[in-house]
Amino acid sequence: MDRQVQLLTRDGCPMCSAAATRLADLARELGFGLTVTDVDASAAAGDAALRAEFGDRLPVVLLDGAEHSYWEVDEDRLRADLAR
Known about the structure:
With about 80 residues, the chain is an alpha+beta fold. The chain is about 45% helix and about 25% strand.
C-alpha cells in the first residue's frame, strides 16, 4: 500500500513552510506520497471544510487521511507509523 501524507498549510505561515520542506525531504527518503494543501485556497475554491476543521492549528499533517500531528512534524512518530 502506498502511504500518503497531506500537509495542510496557509500562505505566509513560516511553520508551514518549514514543515513542507522537512516532509519533502522525508518523502524522498522514505518513499511516501506528499501533497500540500493551502486551506485558504481550498476554501476560496468552494471547499471550506479543511479550513473550518484545521485552520486554527496549522500546519497539520494527515497520514492516509487521518490527523497525525499539528504545529510541527512529529518525525519520530511519522517514521514509526510509516514502518507499520
